[in-house]
Specification:
The protein is mainly alpha-helical. The chain has six helices and three strands, in the order H-H-H-E-E-E-H-H-H. A hairpin with a 4-residue loop joins strand 1 and strand 2. It binds zinc ion.
Length: 185
């Protein structure tokens, strides 16, 4: 019997990850459409969005993660689940920003209202979500977002997707595991 007590990575095949990433994100977009639309339901606007996203991915325009997050927001908007960033989703008061998003009411919560059943985020992350929501997909590459902000945005959007479509997309699971592994390498 041999005992392996030390492992050295000779080549991590990091370049595989890039293609795997694109492939995974492409199937994720398909899965989202599948989750969000009813069978035979057509949505012309969403079709345009997904084609735009594919082109941007193919041409490697900007940060693919941000593009995917922007697509998630468009998906929610075009299927009637757009997040409300302008008013408190509980009392209706006009708000400029917020540090809390209520998932079942679908929007930001003002400083006076009860913060339950939702996700805490920074004001900056809130503002980024708000900007992404109003920005056309082909222009989102202009938006620069750091890793922490990306995590917060992902948490809100994936929470909101599960809340509204009652299904959890699976396409990104494997990629997320790979990415965590690569970070620790
Ligand atoms: Zn309120």
């Amino acid at each position: 019997m041999y005992l392996i007590n030390e492992v050295q990575i000779i080549h991590s095949f990091g370049e595989f990850l890039e293609d795997l990433e694109m492939l995974t994100y492409a199937s994720y977009l398909n899965e989202l459409i599948d989750i969000a639309l009813l069978e035979e339901e057509s949505n012309r606007e969403l079709f345009k969005q997904i084609v735009t996203a594919y082109y941007l991915m193919k041409n490697k325009v900007g940060d693919v993660e941000i593009l995917i997050r922007a697509f998630e927001i468009k998906l929610l908007n075009f299927t009637g689940y757009g997040l409300n960033f302008e008013n408190c989703c509980i009392c209706g008061k006009k708000i400029n920003s917020s540090n809390y998003i209520n998932l079942s009411y679908g929007g930001g919560v003002c400083s006076e209202c009860n913060k339950q059943g939702g996700i805490v985020l920074t004001n900056t992350a809130y503002n980024v979500l708000k900007i992404l929501s109003n920005f056309p997909l082909e222009k989102v590459h202009r938006i620069n977002v750091n890793e922490d902000m990306k995590k917060q945005i992902y948490k809100v959007l994936s929470g909101f997707i599960v809340e509204n479509y009652q299904k959890t997309p699976k396409s990104l699971d494997m990629l997320n595991v790979f990415k965590e592994g690569n970070k620790n390498e």
